[in-house]
């Protein structure tokens, strides 16, 4: 399809440049973002981008900030801080599953944008208002974000996306596996992964609840913790 006539194109803007960069990265990863490819995505010359962004680094910073802006901020109006963080975690997983390339850049950029800073401040605010000490809040953020990022990466690389995929992959493994030598793995596949209705995506909520409940127990002082985390 040929580019639309110039008179029919939407005016170029910083937001349009960043949106195009995200589409490029969604297809080819962060390394696919170049001034030339973003310009091609927009149907313009690369030089025209420089009226809106100074360089590729600015595009990367802006694209990451736009991804952060899509993640729901945790509200401070919930009676239980875990509910607020749970909503944010599920939103983050959904957004990052669509833009998994962003995981490697989110914590590596040196010039975080306003949405990124506002997001981190909101998460810390929920924890601090719930009674977490500053060190414990920092530990909690690190733990929760590591869990979200790790799960998204695992999910992106697993050869299963539907219950039918689980049945095909697990069934194939089972067919070539010496059951007598691997009784516990056989049990897990037969009685868990292959049971009707099993959905691997449900593991995210289970693990998240374990983390949140453990952090709440630590917050209440129900379990001993490192000196710098109490």
Automatic annotation (TrEMBL):
<dbReference type="GO" id="GO:0000976">
    <property type="term" value="F:transcription cis-regulatory region binding"/>
</dbReference>
<dbReference type="InterPro" id="IPR003012">
    <property type="entry name" value="Tet_transcr_reg_TetR"/>
</dbReference>
<keyword id="KW-0238">DNA-binding</keyword>
<keyword id="KW-0804">Transcription</keyword>
<dbReference type="GO" id="GO:0045892">
    <property type="term" value="P:negative regulation of DNA-templated transcription"/>
</dbReference>
<keyword id="KW-0678">Repressor</keyword>
<dbReference type="InterPro" id="IPR036271">
    <property type="entry name" value="Tet_transcr_reg_TetR-rel_C_sf"/>
</dbReference>
<dbReference type="Pfam" id="PF02909">
    <property type="entry name" value="TetR_C_1"/>
</dbReference>
<dbReference type="GO" id="GO:0046677">
    <property type="term" value="P:response to antibiotic"/>
</dbReference>
<keyword id="KW-0805">Transcription regulation</keyword>
<protein>
    <submittedName>
        <fullName>TetR/AcrR family transcriptional regulator</fullName>
    </submittedName>
</protein>
<feature type="DNA-binding region" description="H-T-H motif">
    <location>
        <begin position="34"/>
        <end position="53"/>
    </location>
</feature>
<dbReference type="InterPro" id="IPR001647">
    <property type="entry name" value="HTH_TetR"/>
</dbReference>
<dbReference type="InterPro" id="IPR009057">
    <property type="entry name" value="Homeodomain-like_sf"/>
</dbReference>
<dbReference type="Pfam" id="PF00440">
    <property type="entry name" value="TetR_N"/>
</dbReference>
<dbReference type="InterPro" id="IPR004111">
    <property type="entry name" value="Repressor_TetR_C"/>
</dbReference>
<dbReference type="InterPro" id="IPR050109">
    <property type="entry name" value="HTH-type_TetR-like_transc_reg"/>
</dbReference>
<feature type="domain" description="HTH tetR-type">
    <location>
        <begin position="11"/>
        <end position="71"/>
    </location>
</feature>
<dbReference type="GO" id="GO:0003700">
    <property type="term" value="F:DNA-binding transcription factor activity"/>
</dbReference>
